[in-house]
Amino acid sequence: MAHSVRRDAPELPDFSLLKRLARDQLIYLLEQLPGRKDLFIEADLMSPLDRIANVTTLKQHDVDKLYKVEHKPIVSTSDQMVRGCFLYPLTNWFLFPDVVNADKYYVILSVYFDISYSYFDVTTDEWSFYLLPLDDDIISLELPEFFRDYFLEGDQRWVRTAGSALHLLHSVYGPFSKVYGIGRCSKMAYESWREQVEEGEQRARQAEIGNVFLIDRDVDLVTPLCSQVVYEGLVDDIFRIKCGCVEFCPDVTSSDKSIKVMLNSQDKVFNEIRNEHFSQVFGFLSQKARNLQTAYDKRSGMNIKQMKTFVSEELKGLKQEHRLLSLHIGASESMMKKKTKQDFQELLKTEHSLLEGFEIRECISYIEEHINRQVSMVESMRLLCLLSLTENGLLPKDYRSLKAQFLQSYGIEHLLTFSNLKQLGLLVEQQPGETLTVMESRVGKLVNDKTAGKLTDAFSSLAKKSNFRALGRRLNLVPKSDEEYDLRVPRDMAYIFSGAYIPLSCKLIEQVLERDGWTGLEEVTRMLNGHEFAVTAGSNGSDARVKTDSQRIILVMFLGGCTFSEISALRFLGREKGIKFIVVTTAITNSARLLESMLDNHA
């Protein structure tokens, strides 16, 4: 199970400070309101708030009652009527009078928002809560709506929030020396951050994070649509991890009730299996159970003094490990049952064929069967999108036929969803005469053209095309399938997809860090529709000294969400290169979350 470490990786910065900063500022705002107060919390903010300031902390600062705002009228009973409120997302904060009956409103807004109008007596304050550390190397902005708002609706209100989050990290853990990025949103977030840096004062200090990489989610839409097979990703796909916490149902806990479990590096059992391919997990857990039994069995030959030491020093730890081990064994068994029931191997085989570009007609038949049997609607949509992305769009006759079958199976109300998917380039039909080879030669011609810097109309029309095959060949994303892939000893990041595919997002990060920029990747960036940048932001990067620890810590910011599989791939890459990655994301995503955000009934 242990992966070889090429060189000692640097220590990660301590991100608990971010949590303390957010909590202290919240407490300060609450203390601005003397006396008892009721707190009204937008549903989406419940879990993040609990991670930062739990009920006990809030009660200590005179919070009387907590209400989850679900737009049903509530009557407040506190001394000064309504005294605190978080609204998130902030598009509907002005609906507040419909929800709460009171004369005065004190509204604490949880992210930057411009209130330039008001129809009632309202006092506002801003709680600068941008970043929630979910683990030692994962920080989330907890903005699941970012993907739809920006990439589908073109709403740029969160760009400044992302810039502010970057600014906070730069202020506390910087200064950063190099910033790389790709994507229009990344560029805007970078510019927003630079503006904030120029407005503020700079203090010289020892940097803890040296380099930053920003990436838009729509640069790589294939990766989040693949089935996850590393343990943490699979747990997220099946049980949904929310804010670093998962609820295991009774068939996992072997009892009559569900249990909420925090999944992070503090859970020693989970920490050893989280990045492993699922096929390796059961063997590891069995071995762990045998070792635990051996540790318990030591008691049999002990005298009283030894037993006393054992009870005071070891027993508590063993019991805790035993509890966690049973939960993860239960989760593994439950996932195995679910996945064999759904012909999971058959599903993965189809996915791998799509990624490799083999037996496409068989894949289409499989997807048709999936739709006609009315297996999960989101699953069918996922397969259609994967087919479209990997094939650079569907042939018109396939598109029409599959769309008709889908609407017949799952309901005509999904017509608008197809329009959303098309707009985002997730599910499109090829234009007449625009076969893969024609498109590739067109792109090739543009690349060789001296005036390629000027994006021609011909290339702009490909803006929403994925060019997946050409990118796959150029970056070697799909390893040759005739070679055996040993999942016990992964040789590259493809292990996260059973050796079938190296995630494009992670491969780009690897290549840019290796080349210290985008030089030599011009063809790739053109196929990805550009907006790439590499900037020396501070002085640290330019001196020729041996790389300091901070230079070996890379902060990767995903705008639009990132998956646990990508985080596992970056951890693997870090171990190989002797560097550490910190992942900052607008939210943790997976195929279901991403596609659900595209549904037309998403309100």
From TrEMBL:
The keyword NAD does not apply. The keyword rRNA-binding does not apply. InterPro entries: Sec-1-like_dom1, Sec-1-like_dom3a, Sec1-like, Sec1-like_dom2, Sec1-like_sf, VPS33_dom3b. It holds the Pfam family Sec1. GO terms for cellular component: late endosome membrane; lysosomal membrane. It is found in: Late endosome membrane; Lysosome membrane. It is a peripheral membrane protein. Its main location: membrane. Keywords: Protein transport, Transport. GO terms for biological process: protein transport; vesicle-mediated transport. Belongs to the STXBP/unc-18/SEC1 family. This is VPS33B late endosome and lysosome associated. The gene is vps33b.
